Amino acid sequence: MLRLMIVAAALFFTSPATAQVPPFPPTFHEQDIQTNGTTIHVRVGGQGPAVILLHGYGETGDMWVPLAIDLARDHKVIVPDLRGMGLSSKPDGGYDKKTQGRDISGVLDALKVGKTGLITHDIGNMVGYAFAAESPGRVTRFVLMDAPLPGVGPWEDILKNPLLWHFRFGGPDMERLVAGRERIYLDRFWNEFSATPARFSEASRVHYATLYARPGAMHAGFSQFAAFDQDATDNKVFLANGKLTMPVLAIGGGKSFGPMMATVMRFAATDVTEGVIPDAGHWLMEEQPTATVKMVRDFLDHGK
Prior knowledge:
The chain is an alpha/beta fold. Helix content is 42%, strand content 16%. It contains 13 helices and eight strands. An eight-stranded mixed sheet has the order 1-2-4-3-5-6-7-8, sandwiched between helices. A hairpin with a 2-residue loop joins strand 1 (29-35) and strand 2. Helix 3 packs across helix 4, helix 4 (123-134) packs parallel to helix 10 (228-240) and helix 7 (182-192) crosses helix 8. The radius of gyration is 19 Å and the shape is globular. The N and C termini lie far apart (63 Å). The model is unreliable at 1-19 (pLDDT under 50).
């Protein structure tokens, strides 16, 4: 019996099912910030010039751990969960990206941060652009990763890609279809948008699927996409007021958006550097974290 217990314990501690997404180090603290009619969950760590990291759909701020650890050596790193995602609250509305950009302004105000670097991925690109367009004086350098901006550049052509059917997938019936099947729905993103799906680990899939199964989370996720038409309208107004002038790094996965990221951003910014991460799809931080961290770090350090 004792031998069986020892074997069982060994299996428990070595089983992939017990693996975890890497946590933020204890030097980071967590807090909830009430702003703009919602509550945003934020992790903060490090000292120095501020930089804020905005995640995308299918993930939360937890995706940024490797980059946050690196940047915290000489930056104050701020990592929120976007409205409706992760541990942030899930209000009924406010999922247009202009409103969420104001969420970010409120987070920075609460933390008494004026200027900041801005690093974004996926839906985070859209929120980050809205924030930068409304508050350009607050953004020192802007990194966007592997997702377009509604209404900017070749947006209408991008919408024709059959892989992006989820942009129009939503509503009460779709929520009922996905309820209890969140992992099935999310696996589709993690598999089809990866160069190598196995690099998006099982531990990460379990972690994020659990968060997206929380009450209201899938409704909020569908609302992010449902707001794209409004986002396109808002972005055209931003563009009419002029392009962003801060330095921009537009990174695409070599097997995803690739150089198209820079093409998109040249419609919206005057100083754009193109970056491509080889052997990566959409999930840059999971598929090629070392190369992605280095590219971001080199760009931020160039501005010192």
